[in-house]
Design goal:
Blueprint (H helix, E strand, L loop, with lengths): L6 H26 L13 H9 L7 E3 L14 H10 L23 H15 L6 E6 L6 H13 L3 E7 L2 E2 L2 E2 H4 L9 H4 L3 E5 L3 H16 L5 E6 L18 H8 L3 H11 L5 H23 L18 H17 L1
Helix pairs in contact: 1-2, 1-10, 1-11, 2-8, 3-11, 4-5
The protein binds thiamine diphosphate and magnesium ion.
């Protein structure tokens, strides 16, 4: 493990990975109890997200997640988890957190966030704002036209964007062998005229290193990088999925042997940085963070206007009718 990270950074990364996994488990149970909607576990991809975020500066750099990453972006503050849990219980914008957090809401509509990221990076370039934009998307999302349009434009405009393709081997039940005939997802960078890098997405230190290099390059005015972070989806696609129907048990078992949290914990232990006491404390503070997020989310007043505000500067006729209809319905049921 060669790295420029301090021991403190390494420990913070491990604690964040533990928090993400714990949150994933807790949200799974809450969904099973009918207390939140569908959610996507992060299991297996903690290192991809945490390692990448560690290379960013929350004061200048933006993150655009897909739908798994918000569980592991604590580097941007506890508000990210609070907002995610609020979103999971039905607040469309995650509860109006007034603090300026440079993390976009989760994105379900595959690959659209990649276009938003390039637009944002272009705006930053035009305004001479220092910083970069990092966007996460899955191997499945890379089959969308939006990915190719965004990548092409980023290459031409030389904008400060970092594309992180989280290759967890699956897009619901579609394996990567059926997703692309390319040699790798990183190879697609050639078509955009930008560098493409493949990295072990189950190693947070390796992740940090490649994102840091991509960030330096972007800040230098040399444009975008495509990073393929190779991991394995250890859990179900979402709470609505049964992966035992399509993932070979032996393959999953092999991947579990490379569980990023177990592997990183061992590395830290070997360096004398981790022990069972710290492990216990990390789990306790993870539980506290989730309790706090749950308290935040469940104490928010439900505002039906959330569904309609901020969609367009001026509501359309259809939105006005839908809003009136919802208000009438809520009025008649309350
Ligand atoms: C535009 C669009 N098409 C289809 C879907 C349905 N869908 C939801 S998740 C998913 C698979 C995405 O796979 P990947 O990008 O690899 O992300 P992962 O779930 O593996 O993290 C699909 C097809 C969607 N949400 N949006
Ligand atoms: Mg995938």
């Amino acid at each position: 493990m060669v790295s420029t990270l301090s021991n403190e950074d390494l420990l913070a990364m491990h604690c964040e990975m533990i928090k993400a996994r714990t949150a994933s488990d807790r949200l799974w149970s809450l969904q099973r109890q009918g207390r939140i909607g569908t959610i996507a576990p992060i299991d297996g991809q903690e290192a991809t997200t945490v390692g990448a975020a560690q290379a960013l500066d929350p004061l200048t750099d933006w993150v655009l997640p897909q739908y798994r990453e918000p569980l592991a972006l604590g580097r941007y503050g506890p508000e990210v988890l609070n907002r995610f849990v609020a979103w999971a219980i039905g607040h469309p914008d995650g509860g109006h957190i007034p603090e300026p957090i440079r993390v976009f809401p989760p994105q379900i509509s595959l690959a659209t966030q990649i276009l938003h990221a390039v637009g944002l990076a272009w705006a930053m370039k035009l305004r001479n704002e220092r910083g970069v934009v990092l966007v996460f998307f899955g191997d499945g999302s890379s089959s969308e036209g939006d990915f190719y349009e965004a990548g092409n434009l980023a290459g031409v405009l030389k904008v400060p964007v970092i594309f992180v393709c989280a290759n967890n081997q699956w897009a619901i039940s579609t394996p990567t062998t059926k997703q692309t005939a390319a040699a790798s997802f990183a190879a697609k960078a050639d078509a955009f005229g930008i560098p493409g890098v493949t990295v072990d997405g189950m190693d947070p230190v390796a992740m940090h290193e490649v994102v840091q290099a991509a960030r330096d390059r972007a800040l230098d005015g040399r444009g975008a990088t495509l990073i393929e972070a190779v991991s394995y989806r250890l859990g179900a696609h979402t709470t609505a999925d049964d992966p035992t129907r399509y993932i070979p048990a032996a393959e999953l078992e092999e991947a579990r042997q490379r569980d990023p949290i177990v592997m990183f914990g061992r590395q830290l232990e070997d360096r004398g940085l981790w022990n069972s006491e710290l492990e216990h404390d990390a789990h306790a503070s993870a539980e506290q963070a989730i309790d706090a997020a749950w308290a935040f989310a469940t104490n928010l007043p439900l505002r039906q206007s959330d569904l309609f505000d901020h969609v367009f500067a001026q509501p359309t006729q259809r939105q006005r009718l839908e809003r009136a209809s919802l208000e009438a319905h809520l009025g008649s049921t309350s």
